[in-house]
Specification:
This is HAD-IIB family hydrolase. Keywords: Hydrolase. Pfam families: Hydrolase_3. The structure is a single chain. By secondary structure, the protein is of the alpha/beta class. Helix content is 31%, strand content 17%. The strands form two sheets. The protein has a nine-stranded mixed beta sheet, with helices on both faces. The protein has a three-stranded antiparallel beta sheet with strand order 7-9-8, with helices on one face.
Length: 259
């Protein structure tokens, strides 16, 4: 890992300027797949400090549309960059798709092609609630399998990524960073890159670790599992994994803002 421990973050960046926290969800805000009381308190503390939280997740649009109504966040980007759901307002399609019905048919055909080589792939239960991408379970797939799946998708003109829970067939080059840049430009046009912290834990968060876009990026400790396959590494890594690592970061941000 080409990252520094979180304890060194304040030495290199002024956390007092942080205005937006853009964070992955699964494996970053969750602990063993669930939200914890400490996580909810951390999100509430950020809101009380007037720090905007934007969730940037691979989860489906249908799932995310409900989530933003319950958490103290300004909105959530779903499907690895496909759609933005503000906490109050109309969803915004971030990927240009001329014909959504035909798009879904093309994704289904791409998945059918993958099944010819990997017949045991399992479509995710939430796939029916997706708009821009197509997902199947990552469980049981080796690194070699994932590399082959990426290659097959590229041959068909599709992008491919995976997280701790799902594999995604997606429009190329739809990703979290591009979507977040769109949302920041629309919702926070006065915020410079040094006022945004990006947070993640897995390969589908890699674009959020691109220091040419987001110099202040943090991986929770479980990102170390993927250190050997990432091109972009987070600038800093927490001591703790999953939501405990996120709460560790929140404590550092709030402490820096104390008078």
């Amino acid at each position: 890992m080409k990252s520094l421990p979180l304890s060194q973050l304040q030495t290199h960046h002024s956390l007092q300027r942080v205005a937006v926290v853009a964070t992955d969800l699964d494996g970053t805000l969750t602990h063993q797949g669930k939200f914890t009381p400490d996580l909810l308190q951390a999100l509430a503390a950020l809101a009380a400090a007037s720090i905007a939280v934007v969730i940037v997740t691979g989860r489906s649009g249908g799932w995310v549309s409900g989530l933003v109504s319950y958490l103290p966040v300004v909105g959530a980007i779903a499907e690895n960059g496909g759609i933005f759901y503000p906490s109050n307002g109309t969803p915004v399609l971030l990927t240009a798709i001329a014909d959504l019905k035909r798009h879904r048919q093309q994704l289904a055909a791409a998945f059918a092609h993958l099944l010819t080589e990997f017949p045991h792939l399992r479509e995710t239960e939430d796939n029916a609630f997706r708009v821009t991408d197509w997902t199947f379970e990552v469980a049981g797939l080796t690194s070699d399998h994932l590399q082959r799946l990426r290659s097959l998708c590229a041959q068909m003109g599709w992008g491919f990524t995976f997280s701790t829970v799902h594999c995604h067939i997606k429009p190329y080059p739809q990703d979290k960073a591009g979507a977040l840049m769109q949302v920041l430009g629309d919702r926070f046009p006065d915020y410079s890159s040094d006022r945004v912290v990006t947070v993640g834990d897995s390969p589908n968060d890699e674009s959020l670790f691109d220091n040419t876009l987001f110099p202040l990026s943090v991986g929770v400790a479980n990102i170390a599992e993927y250190g050997d396959i990432l091109t972009h590494h987070p600038a800093y890594v927490t001591d703790l994994p999953e939501s405990e690592g996120f709460c560790e970061l929140v404590r550092a941000i709030l402490a820096a803002k104390l008078p």
